[in-house]
Amino acid sequence: MCRRWYLGAFDDRRLVGCVLGTHDTRKGWINRLAVEPDYRRRGIATRLIRACERALRRAGIRVFAALIDPANRPSEAFFASLGYDALPMAYMRRKDREAL
Ligand SMILES: CC(C)(COP(=O)(O)OP(=O)(O)OC[C@H]1O[C@@H](n2cnc3c(N)ncnc32)[C@H](O)[C@@H]1OP(=O)(O)O)[C@@H](O)C(=O)NCCC(=O)NCCS
Prior knowledge:
Layout: E1 4-11, E2 14-23, E3 28-35, H1 44-58, E4 64-66, H2 73-81
Parallel strand pairs: 3-4
Antiparallel strand pairs: 1-2, 2-3
Coenzyme A binds at residues 33-35, 40-46, 66, 68, 72, 74-75, 77-78, 81.
């Protein structure tokens, strides 16, 4: 069974960071990670990812992955800081409609 976890970081009641974790029964996927610009470099994304990994581990997942645009160097540096390896992969996609 596939599951998903929406996790948020809050400053009082204000949402300042979020991540969506999913898995396909074998691999855990980290999606939609973002932290408000004024709140960056305070360890918020690190805590979001670690919480996401813990939730995935509880579901039996031991491999964690994220897709990163090659132009997004901050995100690559961020994931590298958490011990993620960059692997050479091709991202393939097909759209039913160009507008999607
Ligand atoms: C990438 C992002 C989520 C990082 O969030 P963050 O809360 O600032 O990250 P952290 O504070 O936990 O950073 C942990 C470490 O990652 C690395 N890192 C984070 N941002 C970095 C940057 N802009 N440049 C270089 N290294 C960076 C650093 O090693 C940092 O540790 P340090 O601050 O002690 O040097 C945030 O910049 C963001 O929301 N970017 C826009 C959305 C995005 O690109 N999401 C990812 C899509 S795959």
